[in-house]
Amino acid sequence: MALLTLETLHLNFGGVAALAGVTLEVNADDFFAIIGPNGAGKTSILNCISGIYTPSRGRIVFNGQDITRVKSHRRAKLRIARTFQNIALFRGMTVLDNVKIGRHIRLRSGVLACGVYYGKAAREELAHRATIEREIIDLLELQDIRHKIVGTLPYGLQKRVELARALALEPVLLLLDEPTAGMNAEETEDMVRFILYVKQTKRLTVVMIEHDMGVVMGISDRVAVLDFGQKIAEGAPAQVQADPVVIKAYLGEDFEVA
Q: For a tag site, which of 45, 51, 64, 213 has the least CB within 10 Å?
């Protein structure tokens, strides 16, 4: 059963077509990868799904609901979470505080009660913090750095903190924009291990953009390939890898999975 459907999605910036009639269907529990050259429209798709961009034409259906015009904060309440290619953390705050921000959308107390921070609001905040430390901080092995300032951490750990913040929202759909970009081999291996672990543990559906083809071909259930805003192929990793159109447009004749 499809959890997420993009129906003939168009996105224009002036005279530039970032997306030109892209149709995708992501089933529940899928690990769905989107690949393609720089400027192919990959991040534009994630921005449309998460509500940062509104498509010029077409529909986005999530869990049976048309969310094409739904505001981004309401999509978060529908349990769509994402990470970003360029780390978007509060660098002057601790790891724990950054992760807690992702949890605030699940708070039931009103603004006034939270401002006073007494009684029910205080108990709710403490309960959410306990959940974060038990189910997310521990899961991603961030216990030893949870009180450290994010800006002082190595790049690979910051990417893991951003993943933790997305998980704090308790997503059904997790959007990952190049989660291993800029990482060395060891950091990439760790990140892939954590992504697979949280997907299995939390039973998530994942849509991922990634340039590391070893990662894509190794962990994805299905792969879609974009070029110049259009889908040029979709299928199982081995099928896409062998597609002559994909080889010509993106992978190259000498491509081999490590």
A: 64
What pLDDT, on the 0 to 100 scale, is given for residue 111? Answer: 42
Q: Pick the range with the lowest mean pLDDT from 23-32, 43-52, 92-101, 122-131.
A: 122-131
The span from the CA of 64 to the CA of 87, in Å, is 31
Instruction: Say what the pLDDT of residue 253 is.
Output: 63
Specify the pLDDT at position 154: 93
Q: In the structure encoding, which two tokens stand for residue 214, read together?
A: 């070893």
| CA nearest to 88, candidates 203, 166, 142 | 166
Which residues have C-beta within 8 Å of that of residue 145, sequence separation ≥ 6? Answer: 95, 153, 157
Backbone angles phi and psi of 208, in degrees to 5 = -125, 135
